[in-house]
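Human: If only I could read backbone structure tokens as easily as an amino acid sequence. Underneath my words sits a plain record pairing an amino acid chain with its backbone structure tokens. Take your time, and here it is.
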Amino acid sequence: MKIYINQIAKTCLLLTGILLLMFSSCTKDVLKETPLDFLAPENAYSTVPGIKQGIGGLYAGVRQNWYYGPNDAVTQMYGIGTDLSYFGEDPASARFLTDYSTFLTPANSYSSIFWTWNYQLVQRANVLIEAIESSNASIWSNEAQKNAYLAEAKFFRAFAYRILVSFYGDVPLVKDVVRSAKIDFVRAPKSETYKLMEDDLTFATSKLPVPGKEEAPGRINQGAAWHMLSELYLTDNKYQLAVEAATKVIDGYGYALMTKRFGTRLGKDVFGSGDAYYDLFGYGNQNLSSNTESIWVIQIEPLVTGGLFAEGERAFGPAYYRMGNTPDGFPAFRGELVNGKYTGLSDTLGRPVSWIRPTNYVSYNIWKGNWKNDNRNAEHNIKRNFYYDSPSSKFHKKKIDFSLYPAGSRDALRDTTQYIYPYFMKFADPGNHFTDPARSGGGQNHKDLYAIRLAVTLLIRAEAYVRLNNPNAAALDINKIRARANATPVSTSDVNLDYILDERARELYGEEWRVITLRRMGKFVERVKLYNNNPKVPGLNVKDFNTLYPIPQSQIDLNIGAVIKQNPGY
């Protein structure tokens, strides 16, 4: 579903937030006022179309905040500051978690991003839950329709708390609409938050539509709810329940890994080769009925008023066009001819900015032993070879090689962290830049994005099997994914949590919230120290207490009616 917040939804959803920072001034008289000529929950959510607008706002909020929001937040979602990547444009910068000791502080606005966004989502979901539960039965076609909308709102409340608990630990548990400035929040034990999430998601697993019966592409279905419930069970150490919930997804709805080529890239491979994994990330392929791997897809609409775009190219790709000249002094990249001028940019590669530079771990280490046969490491999936585009140079069309330059003439740091490095092409969209042609899309494209696909569910179940001391069953799930990639099957003796993290990196680089996965497995600090090879700040100065983010100091200060203790270490 291509969902936007129109003026009605915007007005409805700009309700009071969770803390004083998010509140407008209000009085009891205002709160008692009967709205007649302005929009409020009392009238905007009194009809099914109005409630549908509110539900659309939940989707739009998730899309806006987690896939398009401030750069610091987007890069965190994509895995920066973990074992997977660091800030390539400037590894010594104070931006993008290059140094936990200076960047992650209670006063840094970055600490409040995930707190504020998610409590806004909780508030909005609570408003809808209350409105739907108290709605007049006559507005609904049947009880199933009412419950389906209620289930969507509850799903998003659980989605928000998933992030809050992972980032901050014990957090205030808000189950009801906050109608006035509240200054006495207290942190609830995680067990209480998990219970609410479990109740919400369990309701969603039976009340949401089955896959294929959603009102529109991109809407949540029972498969997505079972997947999220499985991950919750893993986090809450309920491993057998995690297996059972994941099995509902894997076996219950007709999902299957895509193993044959499909969709819009057939016959159009810019690299002369491709495979089913490559096709998963082709423009227009995510919502195809033939794509049996999609469970929940974030909708990115091109070329419409209010539409958004994905920042994947801008974030992940190397800034090849900045590298300067060839060894014999000509511009290294001529680029595309647009309006009679060469742009220096390639429509195949887009215009990246090198925000997210993959670590050596994800660029090289995890492919050892399967370098040539694992399709996910093929040149069309990870571009490792770049070539000069400079007709006046004798190096035209030759592979870029920095050893050919005179000694001392190059900046080795920028050459390898900003200009040229392995580019995971799942984020690029060759030939499909619809806007800003002179800059090959300006680092953005309009591909829909996977929030959940079946490969993730298989790896969730494999993790649960490892926790249950059943590595054989875990290996079977992992090998379904490896078989699709033409990779050597993993043996049971090699299966453990670290191996699953390796496989998740191979399969899901840039798709998963890696920091949530690492925290769940108890591996966050260990693996950041071991694998984050930021050349200026190896290991990013991460400490054990950085596993949790600090509670935003502004929220502690505003909560004058009760004490919110800061997380240890901050």
